[in-house]
Write a structure and sequence with these properties.
Layout lengths: L2 H9 L9 H10 L22 E2 L5 E6 L5 E7 L4 E2 L1 H6 L6 E2 L1
């Protein structure tokens, strides 16, 4: 994916939609790209929040652990979603696991 493609992907996310193109280019350039296999864990509930993520392709499930210790899917995350920002912006542990 080219830097222009990444900037356009960022622009499709409401949080970044009005951001200046130069700032989006810088954000895209400074970002790390991850590719996970199906069922791969992006982040785990309770871990420190050191990054936020943009889902450029595919979809993800958000799961929380019940008091009984079972993981329950509470949401499905579509392509172009901005996730994991709560832990970063509020400096709190991850509130859910994302697969």
């Amino acid at each position: 994916m080219s830097i222009i493609d990444e900037v356009e992907a960022l622009r499709r996310i409401p949080y970044f939609a009005t951001m200046d193109s130069a700032k989006l280019k810088l954000l895209a350039f400074a970002s790390h790209r991850l590719q996970l296999p199906v069922g791969g864990v992006l982040c785990r509930e309770g871990e420190p929040g050191d990054a936020a993520y943009i889902l450029l392709d595919g979809e993800a499930e958000v799961m929380v652990r019940t008091a009984e210790g079972h993981d329950v899917v509470v949401a499905k995350v579509p392509k172009n979603a901005f996730i994991g920002e709560i832990a970063v912006l509020r400096n709190v542990p991850r509130t859910a696991t994302v697969v």
